[in-house]
What we know:
With 307 residues, the chain is an all-alpha fold. It has helices spanning 25-63, 68-73, 85-94, 96-127, 131-141, 152-162, 168-191, 196-204, 209-220, 222-237, 241-247, 256-259, 271-306. Helix 7 (168-191) packs antiparallel against helix 10.
Amino acid sequence: MTQTVAPTPAAAGTALPATAPSPSPFRRRRIRQGLGLGHAASGVLAWVYAAMLVVPFYYFIVSSFKSNDEIFADPLGLPSSWSLDNFTTAIDSADLDLAIVNSVLVTGGGLLLTLFLAVPASFALARTTGRAGRVMERLFAMGFLIPTFAALFPTFLLAATLGLFHTRTFLIFLLPATAMPLSVVILTQFMRTIPRELEEAASMDGATPLTVLRHVYLPICVPGIATVVLLNFLSFWNEYLFSLIIIGPDPAQRTIQVALPTLRLDTGTDYGVLMAATLVTLLPVYLVYTLLQRQMQRALLSGAVKG
Length: 307
């Protein structure tokens, strides 16, 4: 039985389909004009958005060097002097130096405990391929469904039962529990992008799972870990509700977010002092973001390319 071959259009004598005609000069000019208008519009929107961010920040900085009279007389004007009196008054009135130390202890302890728990859990989830692994990952993701206020009363009872009420220790153990769902989801997805061949090659050389985690996964996951650290640092540093309920207003243990509102008085608030204290609370956030932003950008670009 012979097999017939369909003739090609050329062999059949038919003309090949013509390539798409190039646009006319008038159409090319219209396309370039449209692209130019699009770039100009995006540039204008970018500058408007930047102004919306810069103007309040400028008002915030200059107000921290002013008195109340200067703030209300000329809100956007420069201060008459760049004295640091507002900063020293804020630190002395609200014990901000001690509050900063407490916030560093709570935030640093919470971050270390979060990484200590989230990295091995993510490593195990990333290496599993069965149904149990998927179920466990979904259980971690269900942590997003628990609202903060719903966990407030059980947390209060737990702290009282353990005898850790009004202590920073309980807050250090509590904050990682709130951060585990997001941390595990981010690190698991990042570790899944690592080729299995690297792990198989290390295992053939006698590496244990802990060795594979330390020498293969962790060096590659530095951008993902930096992303988790930055996001959780912002959450832990700015946490207010649990810090107020669990630690309370004790000046020896309260965090900076609890100490800051004490500068607002019913008899009359010195807004210059309040602005100066708020600026002090933002400096650690700016420093940490400056240190980790490049790693976070690498993680986002890596996810965009591989996705």
